[in-house]
Amino acid sequence: MRIAIVGAGIVGAATAYELAADGHEVTVFEQRGAAAEEASFGSAGLLAPALLVPWATPGLGDGQKRRLWGGSAAPHLVRGAGSGGLAWRWRWSQAGRSPGVRALLAALEGLGRYSRMRTRELAGLFDVDPETSRGTLVLLRRPEDLEQLQPALQVLRDAGETLHEVDADTARLIEPGLSTDAPLAGALHAPDGEASNCRLFAQILRHAAQELGAQYVFGARVQALGKGSASLQVAGEAAPRPFDAVVLCAGLDSAALLRPQGLHLPMAAVHGYTISAPLREDTHAPQGSVIDPLHHITITRQGQRVRVSGGAELGHGGGVQHAPTLQTLYLALSGWFPGGALTSSHQVQVWRGARPTLPDGAPVIGNSGRSGLWINAGHGACGWAQACGSARALADLIAGRAPAVDLQPFGAQRF
C-alpha cells in the first residue's frame, strides 16, 4: 500500500520503518527541517520500566485517593493554560481514581515491555548502540516512600518485572556516584531497566527506513485530511495527495487534524524540561538511570552525557522557562551525583518541550474509525518507551495480523 505518515518524531520514525519493512511504499511528512525535533529531541531517555517514568500515568487510585507519585503529582498550570487546562487537569486527577485504572496500567506495562524487546531487536538488527545504559534505581528518601509506590510495584511484579528492595549501602554499590550526604533510606533496583538516546535512535530508524525506500518530506505542514478518502493536503500545494492509508504520529497536530473529521481527542501539551550536561567524572556520574519520585525527576546516563529531566506544565508559559523547575533539576543532579557532570560548561543544553498527553496517560493506537485513517499518538512522557512496540503492533494491525500486544485498551473510542 501507499501509506503517508504525518510526523517524524520517534513514534513516526519507528512507524515508518516498520511499515517500510513490511513492503509498503511509505512517505513521511514533517513540518520541521529534521526528524525528532520536538518532543523526541529532549526525551528523558528512560526506556524501562516504562510504568515508573515520572508523569507517565495520572495515578492508580485505591479508594483513598492515592496517586502513583503522591498527592501533589498533578501538572501545574502556567500562563496560557486557561479553563481548558484546568478541566484537563481535573480529568487527569479523576483518571487515577477510575475503577479500570489497574487494567489500563497493566496494559501500559505490557506495551512498555513489548516495546523494550522490539527496541533491543532493532538495535541488534542495525548493529548500533544508541548510548544505552542498564539498570534503574528508584531512590527512597524515607521508608514510607516505599508504601506510596506499592500499587505500581504490584502491577510490575505481576507482569514478571524483577524489582529488588535494597538498603542505602547497596544502592550506593549499584550507583557508586551517589552522594553519601544525600538522605537515602533505600532504593528499588530494576536490573533490567534501560535508558538510551531517543533522538539518536530516531535518526537511525529514519536512515533504515530510507534504505528500504521510504521518503521523508521535511518542511511540509499537513493542514488537512481528506474527507471520505485517505488523502492529505500539504500547505502550499494546490491539490491533496492521495494514499491508501494515512497514519497520524504528529502529537498535538494529530488531534487538530482529527477534529474536522469529527474525532475529538482530549490531548494536551504537558511541557517538561531536560538539562543535558557533559560527563565530568565517570565514577561520580550515574552508570544507569535514577528516579527521584519525590520530585518526579529522572537522571539518566547517555554516553558521555548526563541528562536530568522533570517538570509538568499545562500552558505555554509565555515561552519562558520556569526558573524554579530548572533550579530543582540542577539541585537534583548536583545533590545526587556531585561532580558527575559539567553543569557550568557551555555545552550544557537546556530544553523545554511539549509532551502530547491524554488524560488517562495512555496513547491512542489503532484505527480511527474512518476508512484508511490510523492513529499512533498521545504517548506523553513515554513516547520513547513505547515507540518501537506501538509501531510494530500498528503495522501488524494494518497488515491484518494480530499484534503481539493487545491494542484494545488504546483505542480512540474510549474518549
Helix-strand layout with pairing:
Blueprint: E1 2-6, H1 10-21, E2 25-30, E3 46-48, E4 76-77, H2 82-95, H3 101-126, E5 133-140, H4 144-158, E6 164-167, H5 168-174, E7 186-195, H6 198-211, E8 215-218, E9 222-225, E10 231-234, E11 241-242, E12 245-248, H7 252-258, E13 268-278, E14 289-292, E15 297-302, E16 305-314, H8 323-336, E17 349-357, E18 364-367, E19 373-377, H9 383-398
Helix pairs in contact: 1-6, 1-9, 3-9
Structure description:
The protein has 415 residues and is an alpha/beta fold. It contains 9 helices and 19 strands. The strands form 3 sheets. Strands 3, 4, 5, 6, 7, 13, 14, 15, 16 and 17 form a 10-stranded mixed sheet that branches. Residues 60-72 have low confidence and may be disordered.
Q: Helices and strands: which structural class? A: alpha/beta
The separation of the N and C termini measures 29 Å
Mean pLDDT equals 92
Radius of gyration: 20 Å
Order of helices and strands: EHEEEHHEHEHEHEEEEEHEEEEHEEEH
Helix content percent band: 25-40%
Give the helix tally.
9
Morphology call: globular
Number of strands: 19
The low-confidence parts are: 60-72
Share in β-strands: 25-35%
Biggest sheet character: 10 strands, mixed
